[in-house]
Amino acid sequence: MKKKIFGTILAAALIVSQAVTTFAVGSKVGEASLAGSSAGSYQITEITEGSMDLDAAVMEAILAVNTGASSLQAIAELAPNLADELSGKEAITPFFDLVATGAQKNANGMYEVTLSVSSLTSGMTDVKLLHYSTERSLWEIVEPSDVDYTNKLITAEFQDLSPVAVIANTGGAAASTDAKGTSPQTGMTSNWMVWLGAAAVLAAAGVVTYRKARQ
Question: What single-letter DSSP state applies at residue 160?
Answer without folding.
Answer: S
